[in-house]
Specification:
alpha/beta, 19% strand, six-stranded mixed sheet, Rossmann fold, 2 domains
């Protein structure tokens, strides 16, 4: 395979994962976190002499490369038990004869609930070489998810005596954030002072596959499009270090820098057809926003087919308000929109951060443009206006989207101060935003006022001001002239 610009043992390890079928890319894999991932690693597949020997050598390379001074290696129960033995053998092959041990997984009797002395606890819990006071211990495990097993193992070790715990080695760092947006590994390092290393991380795997795809594995061929699905996933769920590797997504949903987008909130397909037919030739009409009434009443596919008789401009589906369900449903929503021929979707992800990340990921996975909103045009929406949603919670919807690389956002056109707050929030995340603003005409907003704060790239969403006009083309021209 091609040359990958990392340490040789990392490249060999990825190749090893591929040839053994432990690394799977393509398809959807349910993780312990309930996320649906396009890639998965099962270190548990290494359960014979050959694979266990090689795995131990890769762990040994990783530990040695860290430059950490240590006396023993310790396997975190249960999967770490075998790792302790195989890693000690791997270290021995590299000239380092390191003792190994693991602890029996027993009920939590190692703390204040027991009267056993440290020596008696060691005899009761330790399998292998018993550690001595003041020794430095490298901990080993297969993966790092929330870290519960790592904190528990640390408590066990601390109950056995006074040791140094400078390093924790795992096989693959998925480089994902938790529900709150934090890295579980970074949090563990900050709380414990223990450095966490991995043989490889998600970015190592991605760039290796990007360079070498297509790749044949026991599960079948990994195609280039399978690899790019990893990039979408890591954009949304990845740590800051992972996301930086990809840069800003910069989706261009509308080709124009500024435009008017008719909100097609009409009741019948005939009215929609007439609206598109009359306005599609207006140069600064950037696309059409299709609502749930048309979508549910006639079927999205039929609505798209009707629009495509007259225009190739962007068709945006606004489910009013999509992204308020559980994370799992985002996959089906994105698939339905893509199959119908929709170009982009609008989300107001009020159901929380995991729903927001899931719906964004699945939309990107389907090749859809993604537009995210958090604040609305009507009174009594945010708490500062007498509503339910906290102002900071609404800003967090924008912030999470920006961190995922999203650069298209819905803002209330009749609330210029809110547009300003959102602009500052997403720009602080390194995103140059494109705004989509409803709230004009019937809701009192003025396009020229929104223009002053929205910046160079924004699109006015106008509903009744166009589709209720006696001459819809004339109304479209009037509104576009205000941009």
């Amino acid at each position: 395979m091609g040359v990958f610009a990392v340490e040789e043992y990392k490249t060999k390890f990825i190749d090893f994962l591929l040839k053994t079928g432990a690394l799977r890319v393509g398809g959807d894999y349910a993780l312990k976190s309930k996320r649906m991932s396009p890639w998965f690693v099962n270190v548990g597949d290494f359960n014979d002499g050959d694979s266990s020997t090689m795995l131990g050598e890769f762990y040994a390379d990783s530990v040695i490369s860290s430059g950490t001074d240590f006396d023993l290696v310790y396997g975190i129960p249960e999967k770490g038990n075998a790792l302790a033995v195989s890693t000690a053998i791997g270290l021995n092959k590299r000239g380092r004869n390191a003792p190994w041990f693991f602890t029996r997984k027993v009920p939590k009797e190692y703390g204040e609930a027991t009267n056993l002395s440290p020596e008696e606890r060691i005899k009761a819990l330790v399998v292998g070489r018993a550690p001595k006071k003041g020794e430095s211990i490298v901990q080993l495990d297969d993966v790092f998810t929330a870290g519960d097993a790592k904190y528990e193992a640390r408590a066990v070790l601390q109950s056995l005596g006074d040791f140094y715990l400078p390093l924790l080695a795992i096989a693959v760092d998925r480089q994902e954030v938790g529900i709150g947006g934090e890295s579980a590994i970074e949090s563990y390092e900050q709380k414990t002072g223990t450095k966490v290393i991995s043989i490889v991380n998600a970015i190592d795997v991605y760039y290796f596959l990007k360079e070498n795809a297509p790749v044949n594995t026991p599960q079948g061929e990994i195609k280039r499009e399978d690899v790019e699905r990893m990039s979408n996933y890591l954009r949304v769920y990845g740590t800051e270090k992972a996301r930086i590797s990809f840069g800003v997504l910069e989706q261009r949903v509308i080709g124009l820098e500024r435009s008017v987008i008719p909100a097609c909130d009409v009741s019948t397909l005939a009215e929609f057809e007439d609206l598109v037919r009359q306005t599609e030739s207006v140069a600064d009409i950037g696309g059409y926003k299709i609502g749930f009434e048309l979508g549910l009443g006639y079927g999205l596919e039929r609505v798209v087919e009707t629009a495509r008789k007259y225009t190739a401009k962007t068709l945006i589906y606004d489910h009013q308000k999509a992204g308020t369900d559980i994370p799992d449903t985002g996959k089906n929503f994105a698939r339905v929109c893509k199959n119908a021929g929709i170009d982009a979707v609008i989300f107001f992800p009020q159901a929380g951060p995991e729903t927001e990340r899931a719906w964004i990921y699945h939309a990107l996975d389907q090749g859809l443009g993604v537009i995210v909103g958090g604040r609305m045009t009507h009174p009594a929406y945010s708490q500062s206006e007498g509503g339910f949603i906290s102002d900071e919670g609404a800003l967090e919807m924008y912030r999470i989207a920006a961190r995922a690389g999203i650069n298209n956002f819905v803002v209330p056109g009749n609330k210029p101060d809110v547009i300003k707050d959102v602009k500052e929030t997403v720009e602080a995340e390194g995103v140059n935003p494109v705004f989509y603003a409803p709230g004009f005409v019937a809701q009192g907003g003025k396009i020229e006022d929104a223009t002053k704060v929205a910046g160079d790239r924004w699109h006015a969403i106008v509903g009744r001001g166009i589709y209720q006009a006696s001459d819809m083309k004339k109304a479209a021209l009037e509104h576009t002239s205000q941009l």
